[in-house]
Design a protein that fits this description.
By secondary structure, the chain is α+β, with helices and mostly antiparallel strands. Helices cover 26% and strands 21% of the residues. Strands 1, 2, 3, 4, 5, 6, 14 and 16 form an 8-stranded mixed β-sheet that branches. A 3-stranded antiparallel β-sheet has the order 13-7-15. Strands 9-8-12 form a 3-stranded antiparallel β-sheet. α4 links the parallel β2 and β3. The longest helix is centred in the C-terminal third of the chain and has 17 residues. It starts with 23 loop residues before the first helix and ends with a helix. It binds 2-oxoglutaric acid and fe (ii) ion.
Length: 390
Amino acid sequence: MAPAPIDPRIVDVAPPRKDSLGLPGPTRERLEKAGIDLSSGYPYRPSRPLYIDDVYNIRNFDRSHVDPGTRADPEKKALLSAAKEVFDLTRHIGTEIVGLQLKDLTDQQKDELGLLIAERSVVFFRDQDISPQQQKELGKWFGEIEIHPQVPQVPGVAGVSVIWPELQATENPASFRRPGGSSRWHTDLVHERQPAGVTHLHNDTVPTVGGDTLWASGYSAYEKLSPLFRQFIDGKTAIYRSAHPYLDRKNPEAGPKYVEREHPIVRVHPATGWKALWVNRAMTSRIVGLDKAESDVILGYLFDVYEKNPDIQVRFKWSPRTSALWDNRITIHNASWDYEGSQPRHGTRVTSLAEKPVFDPNASTRREKLGLLGQEEIQELISVKELGLK
Ligand SMILES: O=C(O)CCC(=O)C(=O)O
Ligand SMILES: [Fe+2]
């Protein structure tokens, strides 16, 4: 008897992962055996046109968001004492935890992980045994799961996106000189009313060399600015643009348009209370109230501060079955395309939406709160306060 045909809709569904999403090699093979033509991109993409209300319907209202980090024991003992090893990858950003399985964390440990991500911006766990379903369950702890209308989802597990860069490159050409896509500094879902909080990317397969991801700290980018310049940008807002275009149902003939949203450019994280610069070159288009030329100069400078200071960045080398959990409220990230799709790289991603971005003029910076300020910085702060009194 001939073997039963493989149903491409279920090929990636059932846990455990080795039987579900599996490795991209086998996934690709299985899809091809099922007669699915991969040359034109993902087989899991919705085939109907996408409208602006696909974004708005489910998200354009006030959802209450209580950040798990606000409930956590500040010392994070339940999480940290259960780990075999915990080490920082750089001074300002990035921590790796060894000896814990994300799928087995207790509620208390999940709250503490929320706080650790808020403090360290990105936290890594290698050798994870986690199915797409378990990844989604964990994501719910950090906020409402976003179901991306345009990014392919694991069939049957809405809210778990498939990240498969070399297949994506068949749709949107990527080259060494123009890597595009996620291979540029950005942060996720800025066009939402309540944008992304924690994103959890689990890469089950990675190239032997290359395909690193970089993150830069928004707390530290803000602290790189002079106190006087911080006063200028504090409380200003900008227009943030979606990564993908959508059709207007009332006027579809006008063609797809990007969704725009106004948010503060400096925001305060609810769990740490620290201020962070929150702009990114790919999606922040202009500062409200300034002339375009002024906005271009200032935004260009702010992007540079974030992108050009290696001391506030971490560059992570993946191994198979590694999870990275980062906080989009306080970081930008960039996936290196140095491997140019020459080897498989494949994973699943869950993003939890957080609060509507808030600015609080009375909040402090990370360095102030942690007592890390140098003499020169203290002096600068004093002189700015004096200027304010005049
Ligand atoms: O593939 C990566 O390393 C990151 C991709 C990305 O930008 C994302 O998942 O938001
Ligand atoms: Fe991203």
